[in-house]
Amino acid sequence: MTDAYAVFGNPIAHSKSPLIHAAFARQTGQDILYSALLAPLDNFNQAISTFIAEGGRGANVTVPFKEQAFALATRHSARAQAAGAVNTLQFEADGVLGDNTDGAGLVRDLVANLGVSLAGKRILLMGAGGAARGVILPLLEQLPMSVFIVNRTADKAIRLAQVFADHKNLSAGGYADVSGAFDLVINATAASLAGDLPPLPADVFAADAWAYDMMYGKDTPFLAFARLHGARPADGLGMLVEQAAEAFWVWRGVRPDTAPVIQMLRCA
Ligand code: ATR
Q: What is the pLDDT of residues 191-205, one digit of tens each?
């Protein structure tokens, strides 16, 4: 019997996840079917219950349902707990496991694909919404020298840092508080979606710094700014594929080779 998986979101038609998981399944010989399903904005839980009743084994969850998926799960991985959101569900006989593979996907893209070592580095994380929160613990686990969370609304960044108060190398503030140079600047804001550039100082990048925009599919003002100031740019396509590979690993216990899949999407 083919095992059924799906990604739930609203909207969902644009999702590349079915393409990615079909490629993983072909490559690893796993017998799965993965679809994109539109969940109604006011009835996510029902959409998941129906999928479970029809035999679904697991699901990915995207905007705007990651917090609802967290609430629906009956147990959580440590990284989902830290993220306060779930992008991967596994349906089990006695409940629903909620996991979050976004941060692991980002770290794997940085470390394994781009060759960026994070240990001892100064990281600037822009944004204090769900996208930023989801990657904080996995970044801290790489033992950077420091992580500064910067947000337009400074209070929100400060409150977010308090969630991880055990980590003394984590601090937060507004853009006016950004000082010194960083080895890695990550854009986890929604600014790129609107074609905006967060108000970064021109000297934010250290020598050989990386600029990572979680958005993919088009050049962003942030990556253009990074290039202009000598930083190496990376978009979020690798993170997209790596978070999917991590979910595939959670479900199937098999780790797909992501390089050909990233390559395929770049060429598409
Ligand atoms: P997500 O779940 O994708 O993180 P979100 O919770 O709406 O979405 O958060 C969006 C983030 O992008 C916030 O940190 C927001 O800053 P504010 O909290 O100050 O609103 C940030 N953001 C959105 N547009 C921005 C812009 N033009 N410049 C800088 N930050 C921006």
A: 999 999 999 999 999
**CATH code at 70?**
3.40.50.10860
- Options 16, 66, 121, 156, the catalytic residue: 66
Average pLDDT of the residues in 145-174: 98
16 classed as catalytic: no
pLDDT at 1: 85
Distance of CA 27 to the CA centre of its chain: 23
Nearest CA to ligand 1 atom 18: 153
62 lies in the same domain as 111: no
For residues 16 and 4, the answer to whether their CB atoms sit within 8 Å is no
CATH number at residue 208: 3.40.50.720
- pTM for this model (two decimals): 0.97
Task: Report CA(90)–ligand 1 centroid distance (Å).
Answer: 29
Q: Is the CB of 128 under 6 A from ligand 1?
A: yes
Which residues, 6+ apart, have CB-to-CB distance to 217 below 8 Å?
235, 237
Q: What is the Cα–Cα distance from 50 to 44, expressed in whole angstroms?
A: 10
Domain interval for residue 18: 3-100
* 263 in any annotated domain: no
